[in-house]
Amino acid sequence: MTAPARGFPESEYRARLQRAQRGMAAVGCDALLLTTEADILYFTGFLTRFWESPTRPWFLILPAAGDPVAVIPAIGAALMARGWIADIRTWPAPQPEDDGVSLLADTLTELLGPRARVGLPMGLETQLRMPLTDWARLQALCGLRFDGDSGLVAGLRAVKSEAEIAAIRATCAVAGRAFARVTEIARAGVPLDQVFRDFQRLCLEEGADWVPYLAGAAAPGGYEDVISPATTEPLRPGDVLMLDTGLRRDGYFCDFDRNYAVGPPSPAVREAHAALVAAVEEVAAALRPGQTAAQLHGALRAALSPHGEPGGGRLGHGLGLQLTEGLSLIPEDRTVLEAGMVITLEPGIVLGPGRMLVHEENVVLRETGAEFLSPPAARDIPVLEG
Amino acid sequence: MTAPARGFPESEYRARLQRAQRGMAAVGCDALLLTTEADILYFTGFLTRFWESPTRPWFLILPAAGDPVAVIPAIGAALMARGWIADIRTWPAPQPEDDGVSLLADTLTELLGPRARVGLPMGLETQLRMPLTDWARLQALCGLRFDGDSGLVAGLRAVKSEAEIAAIRATCAVAGRAFARVTEIARAGVPLDQVFRDFQRLCLEEGADWVPYLAGAAAPGGYEDVISPATTEPLRPGDVLMLDTGLRRDGYFCDFDRNYAVGPPSPAVREAHAALVAAVEEVAAALRPGQTAAQLHGALRAALSPHGEPGGGRLGHGLGLQLTEGLSLIPEDRTVLEAGMVITLEPGIVLGPGRMLVHEENVVLRETGAEFLSPPAARDIPVLEG
Questions:
Q1: How many domains does chain B divide into?
Q2: Is the CB of residue A317 less than 8 Å away from at least one CB of chain B?
């Protein structure tokens, strides 16, 4: 297994900072304040599973000019110092009376003066990762104006650099190798929860750092929902097994699924699978910068409509340092697609009440069209021992 | 492997609701509004890895009288309906213009009338899992008064039922079996990132549903920090390897670590390990309801001080549906310990600059003292092939 290099040179982070600073000038803010794992990782390279602990807040300040400043719990200082961030200020979190709030307020005021405008991600899909009480206290402590970032950070993160694309491709390759080995672990009689455990083991064996997301289902001729945990029910001949994984390698996610027939598939299942794969191939081939997310959604529906009722809801989304991020393939999302965006294409076909097939691939949009990052599925649904 | 039963009967959730409703009467609020995975899981049993996607907000309303109402994305309706919640209202998320906000506002007003007071977790360690823009819009749309919950939800979750204690014990047992097999995967020459992957595989083989958290380190005579990802450096004779896992089974976390010597340990490492294990045994034996978190912190420091400088920072925390939750073993936390609280005891000893050992166990506090949920470590540090 030839594993691609890990991490990025400082120049990658400086380029991200420069884009952010150009954006800040355009939207008129004096700094960005970031609090979430993905936003902080994007600008610093601070990669740790410690975000699983919700106890402590973490802050990164990107000033409109100059280098970022990290205001973080002391427990993270050694790891942050291994990266390119030089100005790291810490407090011994958690501190019930003042959990970094006054340190953050002082740092913001020192860097920006008393009248600055600070932008935060506040729109769709964002969260503020600090207690609301502390958020109110921060605003009271410093007279700064806090406001939305006009989607700046999400917009920057949506368009990937070549280094990021290579990282996501490497992640997708790990999942591709694991999916190719599902015949080793799944056949009629194996309980679904055992398949889930073994599939995660395959992901690790093939190079995943960890497996934050695995969903799936197995049911006769199609499944009802795609977010439930595994039951202990054994696979049965006639089931369609679907596994959908978002594993991480070097911080980046993949997010795609594969379907398997347990024993010979019915004609309906076979045709639905072929139609889904064909629709993704067809739509990917026609994809170009300048189209909108809504148009891409429409193209996926149109490609599937000869084959049955397209699955409802969103038919894909952005992908990167989060399992899902950025644009949504829905009629209401008018985001204009740009070269460098990494997108999941995730159409479904409803075969009957509570019986659906969903197929998903990951692509990067180039000037000339879509390039698959996930190793594309074959039209024939793979068959497990029935 | 005899796996304990999964899930809880409706009576468990009704008991949790009743405690919440008694608490609401005491703090004077007409409903609780919950948005995070752990809070919603606690009251509904809605267990899914789909929280890994930050795209969609999820809402649960607990009225001061009557049953809970879930206001959730349509993609979660089928799974939520399998549990005990009867009133489930959905919208086709994500919707850029109105992502559940008006549905939530209408539902709150319908349930509570126009002048109610709604409590949300807003204190230490909490987050509001919805965009700030939507939070402002919600407050503008309905004239309700939103306020902190006075720590009510965290307080309820901190004291576990017998069913929860059994679930956490089962999770700890999975990790215990995986730790007992570390000799199979770790010896001098094996790269640390390979040890991390293989250890996660062992956790899955032993019954973990998934492994959200694994941290650790390996370094000569002790390690510097405990939150970094694994390097590709091979284990070397003289290293101390530490693995710290928070795996999940049926929704509940464990959080404990184990240390291993690569080849024969130095006397300093051997003594530090024995002292840490002895300190946890000694402090656990003396633990009683009515003591405070600060006193427990002090007891751990006192037990270790004859053996060297105790590791700084927090020496343990609450545990349950989150890797870390509730109280902190720090001098500033005056939380009074109660029977039913599940706590990690996590002392460290500093052996030199950048050289530390940390040992962690999970216990439940009973009226008569602490009961170990993690299979307690032996004082002798286990030795891997050097």
A1: 2
A2: yes
